[in-house]
């Protein structure tokens, strides 16, 4: 049995992130708080609005799903997918979240992100 962390010295969001409980069982307010913190930290207005990143050579328009994929933030990626964000949304260069995660993947660092995005595409194609 996996020992769960205690709530002492830990905010509620961090507590849920460190447990082995499925994210689906997180209370709705924790998911909203996690989303709000992520959007604010990365300069987004909402989960469907892009922001522009100033690269060394060019600007690229990215959405929250791209940043979650690039940073391997699996809990955030699941929240965004649950909210109906389309994983096929392209960045300015037309790159999808999967392509961005694939480029960032080093020695399996983004394996879970890639699996989640592949699974979401299979589920979407089966339900259409």
UniProtKB/TrEMBL annotation:
Lineage: Eukaryota, Sar, Alveolata, Dinophyceae, Suessiales
Organism encoding this protein: Cladocopium goreaui
InterPro entries the UniProt entry points to: Ankyrin_rpt-contain_sf
SUPFAM superfamilies, per the entry: Ankyrin repeat
The protein's name in its UniProt record: Ankyrin repeat protein
